[in-house]
Amino acid sequence: MLRNKIQPKRRWLDLAPGDPVVVVAGKDKGKTGEVLRTLPEKHKIVVKGINILKRHTKAGRSRGGVSVAQGGIVDFEAPLDYSNVMLVCPSCSRPTRTKHIVLESGARALVCRHCGEPYERVRKTEAQ
Ligand SMILES: [Zn+2]
Question: Which residues hold their Cβ within 5 A of ligand 1, which is an ion?
């Protein structure tokens, strides 16, 4: 039997809520924003102010993870693919790919490829 679903190798992403990112592809290319949510299973993230869609809804509906108290047109941030954004390094202020290191404590850390500074943050989500 063939498997239709590709199993993700990693269940966590390099990005976590609160991280500054820049969009490198799509209609919001070049814009920067802050990560609101991550969807590791889908390899997608939601970035504040990026990929805004309007949805016409009736009151009381909940669609796309956005609960709607009032009917009408609702702006919401649609998830975009994780590969369409890059982390912005707080040390050198450049969009960067990160490299993974494992600390002696066993904790994972990200390091900026440009300046080599470890990227530190408090993970709000479970890293496992
Ligand atoms: Zn850097």
Answer: 89, 91-92, 112, 114-115
